[in-house]
Amino acid sequence: MLHIKDVHARVEEKDILKGISLNVNAGEVHAIMGPNGSGKSTLASVISGKEEFELTQGEITLNSEDITELDPEERAHKGIFLSFQYPIEIPGVSVTNFIKTAINENRKAKGLEDMPASDMLKMIREKADLLEIDRKFLSRSLNEGFSGGEKKRNEIFQMAMLEPKLAILDETDSGLDIDALKVVANGVNKLKAKDNAVIVITHYQRLLDYIVPDFVHVLMDGKIVKSGTKELAYELEEKGYDWIKEELVK
Amino acid sequence: MSLKEKLQSSYIAFEDHLEADSPLHDLRTAAMKSFEDQGFPSKKDEAWKYTSLNSLLKVDYSVFPNGENAIELKDVKKYFLHEIDTYKLVFIDGVYSSFLSETTHDTIDVCLMSSALNKAKYKPIIETYFNKVATKESLTSLNTAFTKEGAYIRIPKHKEAQKPIEIINFSTGNEAATLLQPRNLIVVEENAHVQIIERHQSLSKNAVLTNSVTEIFAEKRANVDYYKIQNDKENASLIDSTYVSQERDSICSVHTFSFGGKLTRNNLNFRQLGEGCDSILNGVTIIEGKQHVDHNTLVHHIAENCESHQDYKGIFDESSTGVFNGKVYVEKDAQKLDAFQQNNNILISDKATINAKPQLEIFADDVRCSHGCTIGQLDEEALFYLRSRGIAMKEARALLMYAFANTVLESVKIPELKTRINKLIANKIGVNLGFQV
């Protein structure tokens, strides 16, 4: 589904990604772990098309189509979704109105009519229930005054509504208590299917107890330095990242 | 003949109809002299540095338009807050329209300035309040000299206006360019409460210049909410001077929504005379083309334990220009003050201009005064967030502008008005949102 080959990216003259290759197939869950500043969020931004990052080398394809020249919205239309580490507050635009706008913009891009209001309402209710979101919450201004947990839950709610092919969860576990974490992970698991894939970016192994990865990659200084199965995550949790550094030096 | 000369000769004709022995006569004569001495403001005046009236003053205005221009309700219904029941004071080319209005004398007075000026029973009111908080600034003086018609509203002690009051000034432009000078007097007595919506609307292509003056008196514990909707046509210019006098523990808010018109100047002048006053000055400006909106605010803090809050947001597209000149003046006895002023602007085009000048003059030593002023573009991070959800650039920008302007709406207390302004903003910016929550 997603093929990343030897990707180098920079921001403001600073090289951040220094040759990343990654293949994600439909039905898979990949975890990307690594210390602060290793380039995890940059990788997420580069896949989603954030313009301040300059791709200096390499290629990214989604279902065999080169997406490196596409705008963020075009990538979204092709099924890429990024759950933000720090979701943005939009006063005056309710969660419901926002998601309606997003859904209909996606449909417009595919040449479809707006979703009928009754279908939209039904879907909103269904997905809100899935994530144990209170109906009242849906009429609040997007992310405004939301707690950390509410923001993250709302990100996954948007994911549930948009039904992406490839979801990237950037530090979705940060700021969540264990109950909220379970709800969010449960939501993600229910959305998992044979034809979609998830990339989970996290510092900690904790989230991976609930969203179980097929593969774990360690990102350090802009490169994937080690890949393995979920056992690698436990090893990292136990020993930290230093042993990998030492291993690399050898 | 210059406009000033024309006004001078018109004044002589106008004065002929007035009783020479009334106290108002002296007041008008003094006001006319004050205008004559000062003339129209020019860019040399500090307060008018960024707003030029030159092109407006070259127009040959009809100073006393023919007052027999009828308009059909169906043609103007959209300018009223027709979703709810309101009192209405409607003026067509400066002349009261009884047909379109709904006045009352039941407990409260919602009626005409001409009645207040001419009827004996209102004499004490006029003597106590008329021209008492308005300054001698030249355009205000000009308005005082020519005062003839406008709204007169009085809410007696402990009473509340049961529905909002709309003041609407239509100009038909049936006889070329028109100069209008409405004059409003609003007296809200002890513990009384009123909500007022004011609008100026041109109905033709001909130029109209409105020089409006409003005096508001909020007595002890009075509560006044005043909303100005400025969404006029391209040919209409407005100079609005609103003077507010506040007594102890009164709360007064003025919201100004400027979305249209050629040139709009808002002089908003608050005087806090008693302890515990709260003044709220909010504004949203969204303009494009060659439109110009100038907010000139002054909050004069005289007494202790008061508050003032100013929040002005502006979005400027194409070659539009904006001015924010906000002054907070704190006298030495105005201790324990909490004054806050915020002015945020977004320039959408390279050709748009904003001149912002916040000023604090503080002579008291135990006060909290803060101000913030920003001029910028839309937040790139927020744009990326929206676009990553599949929302195209244009729509994403519009949503962010809508969100930016929207924060000021929180404090609008009439729900139907809030919805209306919400829609105006969405329309103006071009966002497509259903408003059911």
TrEMBL record, chain A:
One of its GO terms (molecular function) is ATP binding. It comes from the Bacteria. PROSITE patterns: ABC_TRANSPORTER_2. SMART domains: AAA. CDD domains: ABC_FeS_Assembly. Residues 2-246 form the ABC transporter domain. The keyword Nucleotide-binding applies. InterPro entries: AAA+_ATPase, ABC_transporter-like_ATP-bd, FeS-cluster_ATPase_SufC, P-loop_NTPase. Keywords: ATP-binding, Nucleotide-binding. It holds the Pfam family ABC_tran. Belongs to the ABC transporter superfamily. Ycf16 family. PANTHER family: ABC TRANSPORTER I FAMILY MEMBER 6, CHLOROPLASTIC (PTHR43204:SF1). This is ABC transporter ATP-binding protein. It comes from Patiriisocius marinistellae. The gene is sufC.
Automatic annotation (TrEMBL), chain B:
It holds the Pfam family SUFBD_core. Residues 4-167 form the SUF system FeS cluster assembly SufBD N-terminal domain. One of its GO terms (biological process) is iron-sulfur cluster assembly. Residues 174-404 form the SUF system FeS cluster assembly SufBD core domain. InterPro entries: Fe-S_cluster_assembly_SufBD (IPR055346), SUF_FeS_clus_asmbl_SufBD_core (IPR000825), SUF_FeS_clus_asmbl_SufBD_sf (IPR037284), SUF_FeS_clus_asmbl_SufD (IPR011542), SufBD_N (IPR045595). PANTHER family: PROTEIN ABCI7, CHLOROPLASTIC. Belongs to the iron-sulfur cluster assembly SufBD family. This is Fe-S cluster assembly protein SufD. The lineage of its organism: Bacteria, Pseudomonadati, Bacteroidota, Flavobacteriia, Flavobacteriales.
